[in-house]
Amino acid sequence: MNTRDAVFPPGRQALYEQNRYSPAVRANGLLFVSGQVGSREDGTPEPGLEAQVRRAFDNLNAILQAAGCTFGDVQDVTIFMLDPQSNFQRIWDIVQAGYWGDAPHPTVTAVGVTWLYGFQFEIKVVARLPGHHAASGSVQEK
């Protein structure tokens, strides 16, 4: 049987167990983080786009910290949003002002979608775990 090395942030494990998925999984020196939305502790959405973006990043950062990572370890980002024509710049202003960090920045793919389970924004990332670095195209321990 293949066992996943799941990472759970403090205080939200019941929510993930109820929905039957892991918030993040460690594998081969990388941390694969499930899409994070602007949900409160009980799983309900924060009201308003800006509050959802901030809460999604707070939820993401809690998972990164539980794995010993920071946003600086993030290598790849996928952002999903409703109505990108209207919302992209609002989201980007929040992200750049408070969460993105210093250059060099991670790769980013932004995708417009029609449904996010009652949310307006979702962020999914892949991060490098501390103690691992890429060398010659492969992940090696320091």
Automatic annotation (TrEMBL):
Gene Ontology CC, one term: cytosol
Gene3D superfamilies: RutC-like
Matches recorded under Pfam families: Ribonuc_L-PSP
SUPFAM superfamilies registered for this protein in UniProt: YjgF-like
GO molecular function, one term: deaminase activity
Matches recorded under InterPro entries: RutC-like_sf, YjgF/YER057c/UK114, YjgH-like
Protein name: Enamine deaminase RidA
Source lineage: Bacteria, Pseudomonadati, Pseudomonadota, Betaproteobacteria, Burkholderiales
